[in-house]
Design brief:
By secondary structure, the protein is mainly alpha-helical. It is built from 3 helices and no strands.
């Protein structure tokens, strides 16, 4: 597997695209739900990290 493919496997957009492909083309709702769940979990992690990294206090 090339470096670009390995990098793409860790991006949430890859799983979102796989979920859409599974649902629309392959008619496999199970794989679609799994891919969307991975995307939502990654979004939750990134939002949590963003909130934690932001200073919310008054200056």
């Amino acid at each position: 597997m090339r470096v670009q493919e390995q990098f793409a496997r860790i991006l949430p957009l890859t799983y979102l695209a796989e979920g859409l492909r599974a649902d629309l083309i392959l008619k496999d709702p199970g794989l679609a739900v799994q891919s969307v769940a991975i995307t939502l979990a990654a979004a939750l992690i990134f939002i949590t990290l963003g909130v934690a990294a932001t200073r919310w206090g008054e200056e």
